[in-house]
Amino acid sequence: MRFENPFRPGIVAAIALFLGYAAPLAAQEAPAPGAAVTQTQPAPDSRDAEALLEQLAQADPAEAKRIDRQLQALWRQSGSPAMDLLFKRGREALEAGDTAAAIEHLTALTDHAPGFAEGWLARASAYFQAELHGPALADLERALALNPMNYNAIFGLGSILETFGAEKLAHDAYMRVRAIHPHHEDAGKALERLGPRVGSQTL
């Protein structure tokens, strides 16, 4: 099956700029391999996304799963019960394979709560599942503009880039994911797959 290339003029340069800008920030935040971690502050509140991301960069695999669950729960709070319901219905429809219903619910969500990053990410997933790659890419852009540290959105960006043969940019996206979430399993598998082809080593 042939797919329409979703990369409008300038989008590849914009993606490269985002990944190039974000990677040094992640390198500053992530600890050096093998470095000892000194706990100088009490465990942060689970609602503190910044503190959770700092913990995630230093966590072992088991702890990373727990922190990931906390971050997902935090990021998925829209602040409105009505918007939370639309989000829930959209995700349920997507999990059931009803992409049309998912897109309908999630479009209502993004229309009424344009500042809710997870709404854009969820609709991007629905568009991607429906093989509507241009709209999926546009929604990922919105999600990342609102939350540049959302490693699942960056992974989705990498998946689209890889689908259309932009393997170096896809590899950069997966590296960015692992810089934020060193134990992200899907990103690790993608890096193992792409690493030999782009001549780079994984984290």
Topology record:
Elements: H1 11-29, H2 49-58, H3 61-75, H4 81-95, H5 99-112, H6 117-129, H7 133-146, H8 151-163, H9 167-180, H10 185-198
Helix pairs in contact: 1-9, 2-3, 4-5, 4-6, 5-6, 6-7, 6-8, 7-8, 8-9, 9-10
Attribute tags:
0% strand; 10 helices; globular; mainly alpha; 203 residues; Serine Threonine Protein Phosphatase 5, Tetratricopeptide repeat
CATH fold group of the domain at 80-148: Serine Threonine Protein Phosphatase 5, Tetratricopeptide repeat
Give the SSE string.
Answer: HHHHHHHHHH
Termini separation comes to: 33 Å
Counting helices, strands and paired strands, the structural category is mainly alpha
Find the CATH superfamily of the domain at 80-148: Tetratricopeptide repeat domain
Q: What coarse outline follows from CA principal-axis ratios?
A: globular
Estimated helix fraction: 55-70%
Please indicate the percent range of residues in DSSP E strands (runs of 2 or more).
under 5%
- Overall pLDDT, averaged? 82
Low-confidence stretches: 21-46
What's the number of extended β-strand segments?
0
**Compute the gyration radius: what is it?**
17 Å
Biggest sheet statistics? none
CATH architect. name of the domain at 80-148: Alpha Horseshoe
Total of DSSP H or I helical runs spanning 4+ residues:
10
Per CATH, the class of the domain at 80-148 reads Mainly Alpha
